[in-house]
Amino acid sequence: MKETQQVLRRAKKEEAFVRHLFFVFSLVAIFTTLGIIGMLFFESVLFFRKVNVLSFLTDTQWTPLFYEKHFGILPLLCGTFLTTGIAVLVAAPLGILIAIFLSEYATPRTRSICKPILEVLAGVPTVVYGYFALLFVTPLLKRVIPSLAGFNALSPGIVMGIMILPLVSSLSEDAMHAVPQSLREAGYALGSTKFEVATKIVFPAAFSGVTASFILALSRAIGETMLVTIAAGSMPQLTLNPFVPIMTMTAFIATVSLGDVPAGTLEYQTIFAVGLVLFLFTFFLNLIARRLRQRFREVYQ
């Protein structure tokens, strides 16, 4: 009896130690996030004391490192959304088709082979993707589009779509694979074909997971740095033409962070203002994903 009580006390102590250890780890994550947010807001406040917020949001020129300075973020936003839009147009249809194939058509052996191979794409360094876009994809596209510039938005957008493809396909496949088999059997019992079951039953039932994969891939594309820094150029201009050089928000942050700009100057503080805008976009995308996930989960529970 005493031995049993000692074992129980020891188990409770161990459980309490593990619980407190996990609590400390969670606090580290929370305080790290708060520190990042605080740094962004503090430096951004210093920036907006010198630059008008309305001018920052509406000016069509971004030349903080030139003699005649303009601080309009619209060209950076345009470049970011242009490359991200191209990437989504590439990754969304391919990712959905791959997910449907792996979930509904592939045998377990084929799925166990293809899925890890596909996920290898997520482990390739983004620098490699950048030089792949610059040295292989761009010359290939110039054979078809002679007016394509050496630095452009089309090439990194396509390669970025390939880069985020594993996020869309793998997470969407996991969501489809988790759909109860009874829903599929009910569809077959009503005379539906495999394609109809996949597109009209499984896909809608897994829509919350598919949406989450899209938002995650979209956030990944918006926050991509090295690929667009290498292949998209460094010319911030307000354009929707994917054949000309552009500059994204992350590319500007990477360029200014190289150390050529003195710390504490207005030019240096621009990276925090741009970083704050980038953070807000990612934050709102995550909120939208959570809202959609909650809404459609209630429908299909």
Automatic annotation (TrEMBL):
Ranges for domain ABC transmembrane type-1: 77-289
Gene behind the chain: pstC
Family matches, as PANTHER family: PHOSPHATE TRANSPORT SYSTEM PERMEASE, PHOSPHATE TRANSPORT SYSTEM PERMEASE PROTEIN
Entries under Pfam families matching the protein: BPD_transp_1
Organism: Candidatus Caldatribacterium saccharofermentans
Domain of life: Bacteria
Record's keyword terms, sorted: Cell membrane, Membrane, Phosphate transport, Transmembrane, Transmembrane helix, Transport
Protein name in the entry: Phosphate transport system permease protein
Biological classification of the source: Bacteria, Pseudomonadati, Atribacterota, Atribacteria, Atribacterales
Gene Ontology process terms (BP): phosphate ion transport
